[in-house]
Amino acid sequence: MTATMTVSMKDKVVIVTGAKGGIGLATAQLFAKEGASVALVDINEPKQEAQDLIDAGYQAISIQCDVSNERSVESMVEKTVATFGKLDYAYNNAGIQNAATDTVDLKEDVYDDVMNVNTKGIWLCMKHELLQLRKQGTEGAIVNCSSMGGLIGVPERSVYHASKHGVLGLTKSTALEYASKGIRINAVCPGIIETPMVENMLATESDAMDELMKQVPIGRLAKPEEVASVVLWLCSSSASYVIGQAISVDGGYTVQ
């Protein structure tokens, strides 16, 4: 069973990074279906994904963006506002995973790549989204994608988990800065989701993934739409008193 919810996003504008597939695409699709104008953003421009929404009668654009590059992020926000006139919400979802590696065997360039996309990328996106919201003088909401890896540790995942712990630090501290300004910032912490990243891990690290799945109380992978529904709720007025939280969507994994 896939979780669904209905929240009106009519006349709202949202940025979704990492929107080429997986959770990002599911989130962009859900916001569009609820009436929002959506900027689908990815390092590999999601032209077809945006066009599919347009063909279905929704408002969408595609933008190529490297979230680890400040000028690219700044341009992404500028293009969104130039097209739709404003910004209301953002889901900062773009992230990468590295192969399972003992910490002492981890290469410096791999460490830099993961931290640049997963942590620096969140900071840069928040920075320029908040600059736009501040310029507008309007309320809004930002949701950052951490991971259950932002809450726990797993052997051979040190840099990925460090990057996702960092996302929660950025989320909580920045949420305190902007709560009084009517801008709510929260994070989601997805567990093991049916995404291209997880499909690759299942194919290349099947034994490790089998062990992980044994520890998921609900006994299955999550659908991307199940995370998208939580992002939608966090941006909605139904979550108006939720600030600086890390919401786990992991089938009970981190409760144990």
CATH architecture: 3-Layer(aba) Sandwich
Beta percentage is: 5-15%
Structural class: alpha/beta
Tell me the radius of gyration: 17 Å
Question: How many domains, in number, for the residues?
Answer: 1
Q: What's the mean pLDDT score?
A: 94
> Uncertain segments of ≥5 residues (pLDDT<50)?
none
What is the CATH topology assignment? Rossmann fold
Shape: globular
> What series of H and E elements makes up the topology?
EHEHEHEHEHEHHHE
Oligomer: single chain
Q: Compute the separation of the termini in Å.
A: 23 Å
User: What is the CATH level 1 assignment?
Assistant: Alpha Beta
Pfam family, one: adh_short_C2
Organism: Paenibacillus amylolyticus
GO molecular function: oxidoreductase activity
Keywords: Oxidoreductase
Layout: helices, strands, pairs:
Blueprint: E1 13-17, H1 22-33, E2 37-42, H2 47-55, E3 60-64, H3 70-84, E4 89-92, H4 108-136, E5 140-145, H5 158-178, E6 183-190, H6 196-204, H7 206-214, H8 224-235, E7 246-249
Parallel strand pairs: 1-2, 1-4, 2-3, 4-5, 5-6, 6-7
Account of the 3D structure:
The structure is a single chain. The protein is an alpha/beta fold and 256 residues long. The chain contains eight helices and seven strands; from the N terminus they run E-H-E-H-E-H-E-H-E-H-E-H-H-H-E. It has one domain: Rossmann fold. Helix content is 45%, strand content 15%. A seven-stranded parallel β-sheet has the order 3-2-1-4-5-6-7, sandwiched between helices. Strand 1, helix 1 (22-33) and strand 2 form a beta-alpha-beta unit. Helix 3 runs parallel beside helix 4 (108-136) and helix 6 crosses helix 7 (206-214). It is globular and about 50 Å long. The two termini are 23 Å apart.
